[in-house]
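Deliverable D2.4 — example input (structure tokens):
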């Protein structure tokens, strides 16, 4: 191999290594700054699917399970039956399940059809810019956060909720004071 070719290969290796380290460092920094259990949940406000202004602050006094999802996400689809079960079990005790859709703008009718198909009767908020990902330091969907009546984060899960997840139901019951 010529000296020029070796030089090009060496520069490529250094570039790839540098990019990889930068990405890893960024992920490590993000992991260290995530929202911690026992800390106040970030302030978050958006529009509901109906077009109303909504916020986590407006939910104070309720125990909120905020589930971030998208219509195209297969794991999101898989956890919906469990979310419906939790909503039915606890809604009369001061529990609010809020679905936050990160589907892009212009998909409101798709979301409504999805809600009907999956029998989702809980409120849906819109987050087409995925601001929740930045605020709650998550990557991807689904992601779920339990926030108590005072706005404190009490439980979180990145990835789908499994059926009969006792850690979640126990956290909900503790937050409700059951």
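Example output (designed residues):
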């Amino acid at each position: 191999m010529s000296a020029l070719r070796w030089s090009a290969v060496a520069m490529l290796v250094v570039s790839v290594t540098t990019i990889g380290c930068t990405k890893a460092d960024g992920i490590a920094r993000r992991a260290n700054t995530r929202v911690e259990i026992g800390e106040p949940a970030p302030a978050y406000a958006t529009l509901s699917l109906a077009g109303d202004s909504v916020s986590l602050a407006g939910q104070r006094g309720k125990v909120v399970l905020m589930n971030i999802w998208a219509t195209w996400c297969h794991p999101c689809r898989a956890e919906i039956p469990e979310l419906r079960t939790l909503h039915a079990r606890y809604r009369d005790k001061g529990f609010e399940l809020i679905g936050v859709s990160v589907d892009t703008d212009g998909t409101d009718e798709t979301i409504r059809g999805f809600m009907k198909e999956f029998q989702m009767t809980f409120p849906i908020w819109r987050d087409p810019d995925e601001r929740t990902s930045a605020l709650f330091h998550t990557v991807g969907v689904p992601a779920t956060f339990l926030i108590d009546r005072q706005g404190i984060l009490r439980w979180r899960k990145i990835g789908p909720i499994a059926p009969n997840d006792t850690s979640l139901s126990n956290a909900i019951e503790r937050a409700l004071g059951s």
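The longest helix spans residues 3-32.
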